Amino acid sequence: QKLEQVCGIILDALNDEKIHLDSLIVLAQSLTKTLKIVVEDLGTEGLGELRSCYCKAAFDDINRDASQGLEKLNDPGKVGFLT
């Protein structure tokens, strides 16, 4: 539910032109890379079992969403809610 709330806030800010798509792209890449670095530095032992599971689930979700985004870019005939 938190994720959907944050997505809604970001989409509203994009729609209201309070933030720009270029900034969102940089932020998305930066957050994903930072999480990867933290996982590499701490490992499962440093993260603990629960946070390791959270990180794995987050990477799975990021991977899924990125794949769906690539699919849309590779087939522009598919209509999304922003088009």
Topology:
Layout (H helix, E strand, L loop, with lengths): L1 H14 L5 H54 L9
Walkthrough of the structure:
The model has no long low-confidence stretch (mean pLDDT 93). This protein is mainly α. The protein is globular and about 45 Å long. Helices cover 82% and strands 0% of the residues. The chain contains two helices and no strands. The two termini are 25 Å apart.
In short:
By secondary structure, this protein is an all-alpha fold.
Name the features.
mainly alpha, 82% helix, single chain, 83 residues
Q: Strand count, sense and closure of the main sheet? A: none
Tally of alpha and pi helices:
2
| Secondary structure category | mainly alpha
Number of strands: 0
Order of helices and strands: HH
Average residue pLDDT: 93
Query: What are the low-pLDDT stretches, counting only 5+ consecutive residues below 50?
Result: none
How much of the polypeptide forms β-strand, as a percent range? Answer: under 5%
Helix content: over 70%
Structural Rg: 15 Å
**Morphology:** globular
How far from one another are the termini? 25 Å
